[in-house]
Amino acid sequence: MLSSLFQSNTIPVLEEVVKFTQARHTALAGNIANMDTPGYKFRDLSVEDFQQRLRTAIQRRDQPAPPPRSPGAPPAEFGGTLAKASEVPHTMLYHDKSNVALEHEVTEMVKNQMRHNLALSIMTSQFRLLQAAISERV
Question: What is the residue extent of each domain of the chain?
Answer without folding.
Answer: 2-135
